[in-house]
Design brief:
This protein is about 5% helix and about 40% strand. The chain has one helix and five strands; from the N terminus they run αβββββ.
């Protein structure tokens, strides 16, 4: 996949990136595939964005609970070789007041 194809396939991100949301449900992940063990523990979250609900990974090593306020930000998923595209996704980071 080239850079143009990658970004076009992820154009929904603009609807969510930088948005604030409220946590509706939390699943804590304590076991993961070998390429994700550095992230443990992490949470998978169901988020309320007022007009829609989405599920996203929570920022690694952050503790989430129902009712927490979060912001949706970019997360680097992987980059396997110098010449490859750096793959990004979305995650939720807790907002500390």
């Amino acid at each position: 996949m080239n850079i143009t194809e990658y970004w076009r396939s992820n154009k929904q991100w603009s609807k969510y990136l930088g948005k604030k949301a409220k946590v509706l449900a939390v699943s804590l992940m304590e076991v993961a595939a070998s390429d994700q063990t550095a992230l443990l523990p992490y949470s998978y979250l169901l988020l309320d964005l007022e007009k829609s609900k989405i599920s996203l990974m929570g920022a690694a090593h952050q503790e989430f609970k129902i009712g927490d306020e979060v912001e949706i930000v970019l997360r680097k998923i992987k980059k396997e070789a110098q010449e490859e595209i750096i793959v990004y996704g979305l995650k939720a980071e807790k907002i500390y007041v």
